[in-house]
């Protein structure tokens, strides 16, 4: 089927990067044991242990982020416990109740947070608001790094959150659907941003990073991983031809594609944000710290952009979201910039534009 | 990583067939909408509707058979209902309680059946054994075509089962993890074996048929599919880059690879079964009607086979199971035949051999 | 154990009223079939059908409100559906995630509502905010009559809510933990306030109305009750000696104790509210329309009341909640009034008192 | 409603014994805190701790056995674990899938056991049959004392079972729906039969022992009880007017009614069994060790008994089941004996009688 011009509506619109593809191709030969008893799965797991400098980490592979995050959270709490998250966290807003389903009823306690980031104070507020058996007991905190709108927790912020969690007897989970983008942006080691900062459990996203599908679940405390393999199997997340879920990870991790892909996507976001920073009628809604750019503009201007063939979502605050991936083409970004500039000049401002 | 000689321990040991691969490659270009809003997914769905001659069928795609079957069954019953299946059905023996998990507690009522096939009488026995609220109410029957041991329901048998189900107010689900092998063996149209014979819901397996991963769920009665997309999403079975789960189906279905692959695998099974039919000390445990061969032999003979480098499972009745796939090599089968013959002659019989 | 002076901290602090007691005593003789196959259960069910002028209503009995409401809601939605309720609804704030547990994950969508009442506009806002499969699909609305803070929906308001529900394809459930108080206050027939106004399902509370335990679940559309008996049994809500859960209902309903008890409790609330209406430093937080009185006062004044031996909760807005029951003693209310007046005079106002 | 002649169809047909009644009456006065924060609940809990000579036991109260056993088992395993029980265990045969529901999918692994008793060998067989992630991992064993058919585990047998469990890393739960009958029959201390013999968790039945409703859940290892109060609340098993669920326990335990009631019921069973032991055409199906008598007889003889006004169930092996309770009247038993003898003489034997 013929290809259309590249869009930046989602980093899920991108295909499979060459390194993941090559590893899949390499894995596609001969008879290979099923259900993870194969050499590729071992190699991918070891690559994660190396990358995180944590030889005793337990690594599992799920098909997607919905399952990875939900299974991870379910492993940390019972049905009568609760999970503290930001009101804009993906587990709250876009998983169709998956965390509640996999945990058989755990409630999400949401903190209103302008930038989608939790703070020790927000966590404490939710964790200590109730202490009676008529309300689910808080047991785990989940933070998204980077957030849905592309903001980052600094290492200090993560450490502060994890210290707050420890004080309250809470576990700390990180939704890293775009973990690589965070690493690339902060320029830090994966270990620093996770277990060394007090994160118990990480879901490391592969799909948005350049794979066809797949998310890795990393338990930094092996004791927490007890029987997690059974949990994955029962929940429909154990691949029979597992090598095709794990070989791509080998391709991503061993040669550094994971961080290169992310750095490229981040650079693309900065390229767009920088180029339109001064465009009248278009305002950046959030600091650009990862691979997302959100631009506030009048409905007329957004329509004008659409008329020029651009696709984008506006579900967050009504602004236009642009997400970049490993394959984002600079020329195409420049085309977008040109169209934004043109729309900026051509479409008059209105009083209601910033509303 | 270097490849080892081909084994027939499982049809999950095989890789991705050329047609599925080519379609994946073709899908790997450009920006493509996520979550199934893409042309590949539409095309795969249409290919299923065409193949089953059922333009109003609703088609969904899950990552694997555990999820596909469990979600399908859960859509047909509530937690206080029960599912009638054979004692050797995969949903009972090898899904780690997934049907119970996805349905939040539906009980499987198992019929002891020597060949793994249900009959109207067996179904009636289980469905009418209890009619009080202290025991889960039967609501759905699941049959596996072909069975775990490679037997087939004839069309008449399926029609009889479905008629029995209708009499009892039960829905009929077909676990078609190896559906293609059944079609190839019976030489019938998919429609004849399913909706025309009274099947409400089919899980059509892609993994064992030559894909990397993936199972299609076909609702022949669209009314039963209400909100099923939500169910899939919540249960972690909605792929973001959906095209990579659906394009391979296009490759499999449009050019007929699905039936060629299955026919080849079935022929391989007959090749082995035919060649060792007269080998003293090796006895076929089941009629070879699909892609499986089960050989009963003494532990000494099985060990001798293993010593010659062959891998196989013995979890069904202690016999050696050999499963063939789209890529099974005739030469390698012949090598297995030679080794079985050699072991047959070299290892003496024992009284306990057939025990 | 010796009795202490009566408190008005909760209507759950009251005992069993004479009519419920007498019926229990009457039921305590001879051999009686278990699990609801007894004459008392039939008689109680019929009494409900009579009371609601609905001969085809289906009636079930649960041990408590947590279960009754959760089972009722679960019967109206699947795990990937959502329930619209007020932010102060008991199912959201005080059931420890029971609705999510019994439904295996249905999400509660909460509307901020100052008085705890839903309106068609609030419902429409929540029901139409999202229509994609990434968020649970709204399927049922639950209203509490009276609300947690003692406000009532008028009949017109209920009709408007139900009309709004029908437009949106939503079912309407009424949490009637204090349903009798609503009837007594509005002076209307139970039928008018429920099925004639478009309510599909009612949980009618017995515990707060004078029973030891028990809640009735009334399906006004019998089709919705399909297999609900199995649901109750599986969920641990089928009493073996059912007569002891149902005979008290006979005692409550047949002679009118249910409405007398409620009228008394409502009158007690008005008695308190009226007597302290002019007390400086004590302000009614909500209109007194049922059996609850909430009084805002400074922490010093509340402490002073506690020092005089009064127990009350302050979990709603920091005010003192007083709840009245069938057994509330006018003399004791007058004693409370005297103490409030005394505290009103003795404890000085502070600037922060009303904060 | 008028009382009919006493029947022995079930020990659930009996009413409330005087001691439970008196305690309920005593509890029915004054304002009493809700949700278990009352003196009666503390006193009942302490009475259990005294009775079991285990000051640190954690005690919870559920409405019925379905919930008590299911919640207890759910607290010991996750959804991907399994529970080993006898094929005739009540949790398997008569709870409508409640254990699967409360645990969100734990599978029951049933051992065929002629007398309903598990042995270390049976447990080991089920516990070690599978050790792969494709089948739920055994985590807990449940034994019923006495069994559904009235047999008892000796103390040595319990100790052997618990030793076997410990070897296999399994927890041991005892379903004591008729625990008192076991104590009365074995003449042993509750502690000997439970925690001193290695039982981790006991559900102690009150309903069949003479109460209106109620089951106690005793954790002998307090660590296992972590957050169990939340579990009960979420699952609809926390009574608001808790005193009415717990005061009866005070009445039962403090004065010894619990054991007297059970001893009486056991004696009644022996009275019947002894009196009909020599009746031609009636054969005891099981040793009479508790309060149950099962009599095998021809359909004609059973019909003849029914014609004489007797009600009984035949769901176990087609024999007539008679269950005795605290209120069983010796005269009425003697009337049953006379009728059995009459039927024994009057109805001729048939060849098929014992089939």
UniProtKB/TrEMBL annotation, chains A, B, C, D:
Enzyme Commission identifier(s)? 4.1.2.48
Q: Which reaction does it catalyse?
A: L-threonine = acetaldehyde + glycine; L-allo-threonine = acetaldehyde + glycine
Q: Which Pfam families match?
A: Beta_elim_lyase
Lyase recorded as keyword: yes
Q: Which InterPro entries match?
A: ArAA_b-elim_lyase/Thr_aldolase, Low_specificity_L-TA_bact, PyrdxlP-dep_Trfase, PyrdxlP-dep_Trfase_major, PyrdxlP-dep_Trfase_small
- Which Gene Ontology MF annotations are present? threonine aldolase activity
Q: One GO biological process from the UniProt record?
A: L-threonine catabolic process
Q: Which cofactor does this sequence's record say it needs?
A: pyridoxal 5'-phosphate
Q: Give the coiled coil ranges.
A: none
By its UniProt entry, which Gene3D superfamilies does this protein fall under? Aspartate Aminotransferase, domain 1, Type I PLP-dependent aspartate aminotransferase-like (Major domain)
Domain Aromatic amino acid beta-eliminating lyase/threonine aldolase positions: 7-296
The question of whether Lyase is a record keyword is answered with: yes
Q: Which UniProt keywords apply?
A: Lyase, Plasmid, Pyridoxal phosphate
Subunit info here reads: Homotetramer.
Task performed by this protein: Catalyzes the cleavage of L-allo-threonine and L-threonine to glycine and acetaldehyde.
What family is reported? Belongs to the threonine aldolase family.
Spell out the protein name for this chain: L-threonine aldolase
Gene name per UniProt: ltaE
